[in-house]
Design a protein that fits this description.
The chain is an alpha+beta fold. The protein has a domain of 165 residues: Beta Barrel (Ku70, Chain: A, Domain 2), CATH 2.40.290.10. It has 6 helices and 9 strands. The strands form 2 sheets. It has a 7-stranded mixed beta barrel. The relative contact order is 0.17.
């Protein structure tokens, strides 16, 4: 069972679904450690003054933001903490959109959500309603003191949370030289397109993620296993810290809030309609008042 990294609730309208967040991805690449080849001691990161080359005491290090003119704005730890998004235990859905509207470019890191406490029924309710509607939820969530934009996706029996990049994090493609869009802009010939379409059709299969594996990592592991079998290993002493446990939360789960959420939205829509629709009413009332004055 993976370690839970976050506890809180999915909120849509006034409904809260208590959930825990579990990592859905794992790093399987090779994690090479740095070693001193003379002594086989671990080589760690040192805080060194780039001008003097001398090591700096952690208490003498501050954080600065470089400005265009080369100067720095120096911020204390208290100031930085105060500027962080307020810690929240809610995956707050702001809107639902069709899945096809989200480009793969924005997808970042996946998580499983799982119901906590007595949240099974509301969890399943949200999952099935989203599947039937063919939508995904766009939400905000704070994880590890950082606010993330995220997509909540109904996937089989799970509600997946996939953090997505902010629009400002995607570099504009105008900075890259690309061939013009369309067949005409790139001067493509119909014969070339026909062959390309045929090749694509021949190579098209049903997506099976289990058919693909990290072959480079497997090759490195095989090489390492051969060295172990040959007795070609070195003794290294390492020190590793442990992550702090996640904070707990209190979440209220009430299915009845569904109706209240709908009523609230309908009331808001009715208020908007009343505010925007009768734009001509004041003019009619004014005209009605003028008639008696003309008659008089």
């Amino acid at each position: 069972m993976p370690r839970i990294v976050w506890k809180g609730a999915i909120s849509f309208g006034l409904v809260h679904v208590p959930v825990g967040l579990y990592p859905a991805a794992q790093e399987i690449g090779i994690d090479f450690d740095w070693l001193d080849k003379r002594t086989m001691d671990p080589v760690g990161y040192k805080r060194v003054n780039k001008r003097t080359g001398k090591e700096v005491d952690p208490g003498d290090i501050v954080k600065g933001i470089k400005q265009p003119d080369g100067d720095y704005v120096v911020l204390s730890e208290d100031e930085i903490r105060a500027a962080y998004p307020q810690s929240t235990q809610t995956i707050a859905i702001e809107t639902f959109v069709k899945a096809r509207e989200i480009s793969f470019t924005y997808l970042e890191r996946p998580y499983y959500t799982a119901p906590l406490g007595k949240g099974d029924k509301v969890y399943a309710l949200l999952r099935e309603a989203m599947l039937e509607a063919g939508v995904i939820g766009i939400a905000r969530v704070v994880i590890h003191a950082k606010e993330n934009l995220a997509a909540l996706i109904a996937d089989g029996d799970a509600l997946m949370l996939n953090t997505i990049r902010w629009a400002s994090e995607i570099r504009p493609r105008e900075d890259i030289k690309l061939p013009p869009a369309g067949k005409g802009g790139a001067k493509l010939k119909e014969g070339e397109l026909k062959m390309a379409r045929q090749l694509i059709a021949d190579m098209t299969t049903k997506w099976k993620p289990e058919d693909f594996a990290d072959e480079f990592t497997a090759a490195i592991h095989r090489l390492a296993a051969q060295r172990v079998e040959a007795g070609q290993t070195e003794k290294v002493t390492t020190l590793e810290g442990e992550a702090s446990p996640p904070a707990s939360s209190n979440v209220v789960d009430l299915s009845e809030l569904l109706k209240r959420s709908l009523d609230s939205r309908q009331s808001a829509q009715k208020a908007d309609a009343e505010e925007n629709a009768p734009a001509a009413v004041p003019a009619k009332k004014t005209a009605a008042k003028k008639v008696p004055r003309r008659a008089a």
